[in-house]
Amino acid sequence: MSLITVKDLSLGYESKAIIEHLNFEINEGDYLCIVGENGSGKTTLMKTLLHLKAPLAGEILFSDGLNANEIGYLPQQTVVQKDFPASVKEIVLSGCQGRTGLRPFYTKKEKKLAMDNMKLLNILPLKECCYRELSGGQQQRVLLARALCATRKMLLLDEPVSGLDPGVTLQMYELIRELNSVKITIVMISHDISTAVKYASHIFHIGEEIFFGTTQEYMKSEVGQFFLQYDETASS
Amino acid sequence: MMSGIISLFIQYPFARYALIVGILIALCSSLLGVTLVLKRFSFIGDGLSHVAFGAIAIASVLNLTNQMLIVLPVTILCAILLLRTGQNTKIRGDASIAMISVGALAFGYLLLHLFPTSSNLSGDVCSTLFGSYSILTLTSQEVWICVILSVLVIAFFILFYNKIFSVTFDETFSQAVGVRAGWYNLMIAVVIAVIIVLAMNLVGSLLISALVIFPALSAMRIFKSFRKVTICSVVISVICALAGILISVAVSTPVGSTIVAVDVAVFGICCAAGALKK
Ligand SMILES: Nc1ncnc2c1ncn2[C@@H]1O[C@H](COP(=O)(O)OP(=O)(O)O)[C@@H](O)[C@H]1O
Ligand SMILES: [Mg+2]
Predict the structure, then answer these.
(1) Measured distance between the N- and C-terminal CA atoms of chain B, rounded to whole angstroms
(2) Could you tell me the CATH number of the domain that includes residue B233?
(3) Tell me: the pLDDT tens digits for B106-128?
(4) Is residue B23 part of a domain?
(5) How many domains does chain A fold into?
């Protein structure tokens, strides 16, 4: 079942288009990786999908089963001011904001949800800790737990592993894979093509040529082969 | 001497008013301090206090009996205006704030000079800027306005506490889950304007930022969660205001600067405590 359908979408800033005439679908249970060079418009695409930015043209259709506020989002490098006093618990709980509407306080159910998500991501012992004193990997887990409070359906992750060391990066990828295996649809931005093809079911390559398709198709395509080769030579 | 002061507060209504109003203002001004500091809005607070000075000048030239009637709307309007221009990339937010605030200051002084309402112009200006003993001469009507506005500010803060946290911590995320961040920013700006007009009675327009920012900064030295910092800054602010008012009555110093001096001292203590904790 298609959760999001994108029709003839153009996006960019102030009528200067970055990507034009996009058409694709995201289905339930997909693991879509958006790859492409820096500045190619990956973050812009994600913000447009989230209705944080108006599209220049075209439309984004959500299926009946998905409300716009049922998407969990992990922004690219949340620049939290250096001295922001916020405990892990407070931040994770704030993921429930989409559910509260105008109700001023959180319900017991929402508090339990926050607890469960902290447990799931192994950050429960840190719940009273100050966010800014955590390591990079722990911080990303906190933000992931917050995103999970917003939804059990779909997660949009903008470079969730940037700035993490290799071991923690691997843990993060495994964690995201586990979330995907319990039917959470994943849309992830990454510029690591070789891991993208390892984990994702679909690849969206933004660049001079735009590619959208399954991972198998991508590995057979010219763009895919070119970049995969390039990636191997770069890492070897 | 201490018992003398206490009996003064028990005996005279004006002293009681001063105490009630002082505590309420201190409470309100510290509530949004954390948000103000973290959202880099503190300069908006500073700019607005100058605008309020200009508005007071207009009000006194027009010879209004209740200056709030003009000062409050003008300040709120400017708060909204500043927030709008702050989001506009063409004029840098801080530049436009500097423009408006310095402009209002100059314009206000000019007005007072052209249409002097009393023979003691510099005395008047000085008391508007630094807060004189005006808090000891509040009428019961002014006290009621203060009480009502404070209750509104406190109610707003409690009802929207979780939204304010979310918008302050990560605006993009809260927008993504459907919080109307723009609207809350606007409300925060309006509430800041109200607080500034209120606090003007207590410490005068130049010292308002101190009243708003110092308790928050002090609390942030010691505590690490938003809730604890908020509660702590309220407690600090109220205690400092109380101490400041009592000291100023005892040794007859200006109320506003005494309170701010106490705030600064507490900030120093909190810095030391924070450093020791590490
Ligand atoms: N707020 C903005 N206003 C105008 N242009 C922008 C803005 N943000 C990003 N851009 C431009 O849009 C392009 C795509 O940016 P982005 O989506 O962040 O790329 P990516 O996430 O793929 O690195 C870049 O060329 C960038 O300069
Ligand atoms: Mg990006």
Answers:
(1) 41
(2) 1.10.3470.10
(3) 888 888 888 777 667 777 676 66
(4) yes
(5) 1
Regarding pTM above 0.95, the answer is no
| Number of separate domains in chain B | 1
Query: Residue B144 is part of which domain span?
Result: 2-272
In a domain, B152, yes or no: yes
With respect to residue A52, please indicate whether it lies within any of the assigned structural domains: yes
Pocket lining: A43 vs ligand 1, CB cutoff 6 Å: yes
Q: What is the mean pLDDT of chain B?
A: 83
Per-residue pLDDT of chain A in tens (236 residues, 90 and over written 9): 788 899 999 988 887 888 888 899 999 899 999 998 888 889 999 999 988 888 898 888 888 777 766 788 998 866 666 678 899 999 999 999 888 878 889 999 999 999 999 998 889 999 999 998 888 889 988 999 999 998 878 999 999 888 788 888 998 899 999 999 988 999 999 888 888 888 999 999 998 888 898 988 888 888 777 777 776 665 55
Give the span between the Cα atoms of B83 and B182, in whole angstroms: 10
Which residues, 6 or more positions from B142, have their beta carbon under 8 angstroms from its beta carbon?
B21, B66, B68, B201
Q: How many C-beta neighbours within 10 Å does residue B195 have?
A: 27
Starting at the earlier edge strand, list the strands of the sheet with A154-158: A71-74, A154-158, A185-189, A31-36, A202-206, A211-214
Please give the Cα distance from A32 to A76 (Å, whole number): 17
- Listed by number, the residues of chain B in 233-272 with a beta carbon closer than 8 Å to a beta carbon of chain A are none
Among B156, B164, B173, B218, most A C-beta atoms within 10 A, so best to mutate, is B173
User: Domain for residue A23, yes or no?
Assistant: yes
The contacts of residue B252 (CB under 8 Å, 6+ apart) are none
| Amino acid sitting at position B186 | L
pLDDT at B85: 65
CATH code assigned at A159? 3.40.50.300
How far apart are alpha carbons B54 and B125 in whole angstroms?
A: 11
How far off is chain A from B174, nearest CA to CA, in Å?
Answer: 7
Q: How far apart are CA A82 and CA A65, in angstroms?
A: 39
B209 falls within a domain = yes
Say how many residues make up chain B: 278
Q: Kindly report the CA angle at B221 between A76 and B150, in degrees rounded to 5?
A: 90
| Residue A29 belongs to domain spanning | 1-71+155-163+190-236
Query: Is residue A36 a part of any domain in this protein?
Result: yes
In a domain, A2, yes or no: yes
CA distance B272 to chain A (A): 17
Q: By percentage, how much of chain B surpasses pLDDT 90?
A: 25
CA of A122 to the centre of ligand 2 (A): 27
B277 found inside a domain: no
